[in-house]
Amino acid sequence: MTGVCPNQTIEAMVATGQITATEPVTPAQVQPASLDLRLGNVAYRVRASFLAGRGRTVAERLEEFEMHRIDLANGAVLEKGCVYLVPLMESLALPAGLQAVANAKSSTGRLDLLTRTITDGGTEFDRIADSYTGPLYAEICPRSFSVLVRPGMRLNQIRF
């Protein structure tokens, strides 16, 4: 498959279970050529930015880097200059021949938030490997000021 998948293909991926979520994917998340990704219910304050690396899961690496866990259910403040990892509501089961690229939504730039997507086994930020199956995570680092976040906020998007 070449090119970027349109919204109809993304909707079909949701319908067939190639994209799943802890809360149903909403029509508002599906853009003409991308899917908005939503923050989950917990954030982890981590010592530093990291990638899972080949053969490793983010959960395994989190054991090494986690400082403390923050419940986002009622909203929580992420402090300026700190690095956080937030499991996203969406997970993927990409078929062979399909890969994805994630990026921060434009609103995060206006807030001066560094946000990147990482995956199990990932060796690059914002790159989802061909045939990837597993959860997605957002790394968030507020750079200019602390920010209030809640579950369901859409800071990143993904293109297939």
Short description:
The protein has helices at 7-15, 58-65, 106-110; strands at residues 19-21, 35-38, 42-46, 66-71, 76-78, 83-93, 100-104, 113-119, 127-128, 133-142, 147-149, 154-159. The chain has 160 residues and is mostly beta strands. Strands 1, 3, 4, 6, 8 and 10 form a 6-stranded antiparallel beta sheet that branches.
Task: Name a few traits of the molecule.
14% helix; mainly beta; 160 residues; single chain; 6-stranded antiparallel β-sheet; 12 strands; 3 helices; 4-stranded antiparallel β-sheet
Beta-strand percentage? 35-45%
Say how many strands there are: 12
Q: Roughly what is the average pLDDT, rounded to an integer?
A: 96
End-to-end CA span: 10 Å
**What Rg, in angstroms, do the CA atoms define?**
15 Å
Shape: globular
N-to-C order of helices and strands: HEEEHEEEEHEEEEE
- Residue share in helices? 10-25%
Secondary structural class: mainly beta
The largest β sheet comes out as: 6 strands, antiparallel
User: Count of DSSP helices?
Assistant: 3
Low-confidence stretches: none
Question: Can you walk through the features of this model?
Answer:
This protein is mostly beta strands and 160 residues long. It contains 3 helices and 12 strands; from the N terminus they run H-E-E-E-H-E-E-E-E-H-E-E-E-E-E. The strands form 3 sheets. Strands 1, 3, 4, 6, 8 and 10 form a 6-stranded antiparallel β-sheet that branches. It has a 4-stranded antiparallel β-sheet with strand order 2-12-7-9. The mean pLDDT is 96.
